[in-house]
Amino acid sequence: MAVVLNQEWLNTNSLRNYPFREDMSLIPVEDVSVRLPNSLIVDCVFTVAGSTPRIYLASLMLVGNHINFTFKDSAGVIVTTINVDTSSYTMYDPILLYGIADYSDARGTLILGNISDFRNAFKDGNYTFTLTTTELEPCIIRPALRGVRSLVLVNNDIESEKLSGIVRLIAGTNMKLSYDATLNEVRFDALSVPGVNFNEICDCEDPTAPQCIKTINGISIDDVEIIGDGKCIEITKNGNELVIKDICSVPCCGCTELEFLTSSLAILESNLSKVEAYYSTLNGKLDEFINNALLTL
Predict the structure, then answer these.
(1) How far apart, in Å, are the Cα atoms of 40 and each of 15, 23, 107, 194?
(2) What is the per-residue pLDDT across 176-228, written as a single tens digit (0 to 9) for each?
(3) What is the pTM (predicted TM-score) of this model?
(4) 141-143 and 41-48: which strand pairing?
(5) Within 1-48, where are the H helices?
């Protein structure tokens, strides 16, 4: 059971509007004939990061033994909600408050007093209020002293969930983290020297481009020069290309010369055909002469 400190302070608050502003009416929109008794909420503290907003009790729901409280800021954004089981609640026990959504890192404490006065005045149902009827005292909302509320990792248009509590920064490949206690800063150093657990150095300027050529036939290309043989091989550079030419095998004839050669070969082929025909005729004559000569012997 929590220890109640300064009970007289809480007793005093049960007789005044506090923690609501003194000029608040505490009258719900639904029924102007009833008013929140001063003894219902006797103390409240809420710590919010950044600038301190104006916060008010936006709605209150009573169902049986349960009371649900919803607090909003002046823009209508929900700050926190809390449900209290009055059958097990002890007067002046602190109730922890936890922020929601935009106020997820906010924390607070709510203390209820004599609940019976409220139960006698209000029936079961939902009751709403406005900023002008249930705004909390400005001193209730206190700025958080934490410098960093949370961390969010952003990768292009994708954002991670908010990282809060103990967040560890771990050095990755070719990255070193160091802490300077004097300046209270964390330093990120990208290392260029390869070592254990580090990648090899690559001279590629664009990390998305294809990997650089590191060796040719197992030979490092740090200082390699590609040269021709000075006779038939010529190597030239054209932008990002190496052009290798075989200057000895370049044809010396063009289309005109090839056409002349083709015509000459056609004529030669025709003459060879005539020679072949003459040879066949001569061979037949020779055979006939030999046969006649043998008959006369």
Answers:
(1) 10, 17, 21, 67
(2) 888 888 888 888 887 766 555 555 555 555 656 666 777 777 777 666 777 78
(3) 0.52
(4) parallel
(5) 7-13
